[in-house]
Amino acid sequence: MLVTLKEILKIAEEKKIAVGAFNTPNLESLMAILDAAEELQLPVIIQAAQCHEGFVPVSVIGPVMIARAKEATVPVCVHLDHGETLDYVQKVLDIGFTGVMFDGSTMPYEENVANVKKAVEMAARTGASVEAELGSMGRRESGAGDGAGAGDDTKIYTDPMQAKAFVQETGIDALACSFGTTHGIYLTEPRLDFSVVEQVRKETDGMPVVMHGGSGVSSEDFRKAVAAGVRKINYFTYMDKAAGTALAEYVAGVETGMPVFFTEAAVKAGAAMKENIKEAMKVFANID
């Protein structure tokens, strides 16, 4: 069932859980995500990130995401993750995405506000919802940069009072906050400041908070984040890593001189992703 970001976050708020948001740079990841969600009967967000355009064009994977979401037995939001330009935002809205994120977190505040306001106006024409980011996770969504987990000094923690003004000025539906997470692989254990989430929620009248850089965070810290008010958790790096590990194991297990078949490898990778996603979903939804 295809729903908007606002609608799926309302479900999360009512249940006091976080909805998992997973990237789909290939068909195997899309199938793994939706199979896991339907097996657990949990709402889910499937995302296309602009930085993944080189893996699969959104013009190709986007319509498939929409079709599969409509067929799903659980609520599914089809969302743009880290939209870097307004042209790209319009592109996914034309495809039928029900949620978009404009990421202006590295821009000066006023420029970020101006662009997000334009994204909100664009999304309103199709009924889609908008997520924006205030603060910085240091490394970009692709994991690029010199930052290393908690030692990444390029992170800028979200100011709750600035978040209040930002939400009021832009009219967004969800706010991605920086409270100690980093995109990509964690090289050191993250030190998360959950009070940032709590204060942002307080100052914005309960605005759903989004957690980026979720892969690699402990189950205990995920639960603390949800308790503090996080309602959407972005998760990709470690599910992708699980697929890569399964692929390597498959190739290593093929007898010398025997062929390695991509189709078989893809099935193994997809199955590994599904199990990793299920475990993450259970934590986000407080399921033992």
Could you explain how this protein is built, in words?
This protein has a single domain (5-284), classed as TIM Barrel (Alpha-Beta Barrel). The chain has an 8-stranded parallel beta barrel, surrounded by 10 helices. It has helices spanning 5-15, 27-40, 58-71, 86-95, 109-124, 160-170, 194-203, 219-228, 237-253, 262-284; strands at 19-23, 44-49, 76-83, 99-102, 129-134, 174-177, 209-211, 230-235. α3 (58-71) links the parallel β2 (44-49) and β3. It has 288 residues and is an alpha/beta fold.
Helix and strand topology:
Elements: H1 5-15, E1 19-23, H2 27-40, E2 44-49, H3 58-71, E3 76-83, H4 86-95, E4 99-102, H5 109-124, E5 129-134, H6 160-170, E6 174-177, H7 194-203, E7 209-211, H8 219-228, E8 230-235, H9 237-253, H10 262-284
Parallel strand pairs: 1-2, 1-8, 2-3, 3-4, 4-5, 5-6, 6-7, 7-8
Helix pairs in contact: 2-10, 4-5, 6-7, 9-10
And the CATH topology? TIM Barrel
* SSE string: HEHEHEHEHEHEHEHEHH
Share in β-strands: 5-15%
- Euclidean distance between termini CA atoms: 26 Å
* CATH architecture verdict: Alpha-Beta Barrel
Radius of gyration, in angstroms, nearest whole number: 18 Å
| Percent helix range | 40-55%
CATH class: Alpha Beta
